[in-house]
Amino acid sequence: AQVPTMLGLESSCDDTAAAILHGRTILSNVVLRQDDLHAAFGGVVPEIAARAHAEKIDIAVERALDEAGRDLSQIDAIAVTAGPGLIGGVLAGVMCAKGLAAATGKPLIGVNHLAGHALTPRLTDDVAFPYLMLLVSGGHCQFLRVDGPDSFVRLGGTIDDAPGEAFDKVARLLALPQPGGPSVETCAEQGRPTIALPRPLMDRPGCDLSFSGLKTAVLRARDDAVDRDGGLRESIRADLCASFQSAVRDVLAEKARRALAACPDATAFAVAGGVAANGAIREALQDVADRAGIPFLAPPLALCTDNAAMIAWAGAERLFLGLTDDLTLAARPRWPL
Ligand code: KG4
Ligand code: ZN
């Protein structure tokens, strides 16, 4: 077919997802979340995640087909996240995809989860290679130059925590609800960035980032404020949020500037991941793109956080290049781009 109909599967973390794409049209995009299963443990428990993926992946596929009004015979190829991620979950997806490919005789395509995120701007916008991509979420933080569907150059990334993780930890330190990103952003609106916090790795050349020291600095500033006050005044909490958010914004913007300088032929600057939902951060990144004279692309959040439409799309890009896999496709816990 000229315009392929793709089934995509994603199960590398805590969302079981399936989607149907016809060309760039999203016919369905099902995400079955597991938050409630992991909530009591304060993080994703791999064993629980693997079991839930194995139980839910067939349901996700059925629902995706159903919502799309398609049956399996109308699917041209099956794309699945083959890594990196929690191996039990990745295996559940890969085994399901292999079963479907064997049963239908349709091509099987293993997709790198990060490539799925990195190619999403081409699903939602007309963007040509190469472009600069910033993945910025609770689990990822890296700058990629995207040269083709199978060609990525990592320009830099975090050497410790991801920024979303730092937002979540700072929220915990300040007794704000999880996920921390939105609650810290809301609290910051009531405050001013008056508390001096470090801008980690700013004076080091290159595009690497660090967020764990920033989180520790917030802890220290909080304790100083509590000592002086005997309690954490609401205004101080808001100032801490505003100061932390400004620090994250400043380092992301400066490193983005450098990453763009390192790829002068970039046609666009795109962001993906939960942290890109932050208004202040988004504005600063948009400004970096504006100054470089290139479009700033931020796909809708449902396509920026973990989903299977991005995997189906990355699969379509690979199918177009003839990059298919056979039934020996392996699930890989680690898989650098
Ligand atoms: O992309 P995502 O949904 O999931 C993965 O991490 O894979 O990102 C979630 C992360 C969480 O750490 C959350 O606190 C952060 O994105 N986040 C935000 C905002 N909304 C979500 N961080 C800063 N500001 C926000 N408005
Ligand atoms: Zn992801």
TrEMBL record:
Binding site for Fe cation: H113, H117, D306
GO BP annotations listed: tRNA threonylcarbamoyladenosine modification
Cofactor(s) this protein cannot do without: Fe(2+)
Binding site for substrate: L135, V136, S137, G138, G139, D168, G181, E185, N278
Domain (Gcp-like): residue spans on this chain: 25-313
Molecular function GO labels: iron ion binding; tRNA N(6)-L-threonylcarbamoyladenine synthase activity
Pfam families: TsaD
Family, per entry: Belongs to the KAE1 / TsaD family.
Protein name, as recorded: tRNA N6-adenosine threonylcarbamoyltransferase
Organism in which the protein naturally occurs: Jannaschia aquimarina
